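Course assignment 3, question 2. Fill in each field.
Student: A.L.
Task: Predict the tertiary structure for the chain below.
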Amino acid sequence: MTTRIQRRNRRKILDAALEVFSAQGFRGATLDQIAGVAGLSKPNLLYYFDSKEAMHRALLDELLDIWLAPLRAMNPQGDPRGEIMGYMRRKLQLSRDYPRESRLFANEVLQGAPRLSDEIAGDLKDLVDDRAALIRRWIADGQLAAVDPYHLIFSIWALTQHYADFDAQIRLIRGDKDPMDGAEGFLDSLFDRLLHP
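Answer field:
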């Protein structure tokens, strides 16, 4: 049984690893960097996780549950435009609440998804295929404009996660403003017009 201190240290290590991986990518991150951010010795770090890979894997496993939840939440019996718009808003909120996790995922995919390829080609693909079939049904029923369901989902990913993954770029261009100021209203309008039958 793990103690409260062990749980706290494990969480502290994962938070430090998330900080380093999201900034440096997997290849650029070192155990020494993670130990420094965690405020623990490298041997103490290795007591909880036997490798950098183990920390990265633990973070990716946590992330996938969070990342897939908004797409899973789409209700097949709901209003089609409302369900897709709700999905877009939930993804935008994830970018606001979990920017480091978004960058961790983006870094993994940019490297060719070496540690996530099975999950992407498996659970994620199955979920996207299922939602694409649902969107096709809504289109066939005349409830949505004829759009490619996969490109619609990819566009939602791109347009929402951009705010987390390219936060520095947005802040440099917009100045001190909140990078997401006005984003939800703009995306609502964009997708509402796109999806209107």
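Instructor remarks: The chain has two domains: 1-50, 57-195. Residues 57-195 form a domain with the Tetracycline Repressor; domain 2 fold (CATH 1.10.357.10).
Grade: pending
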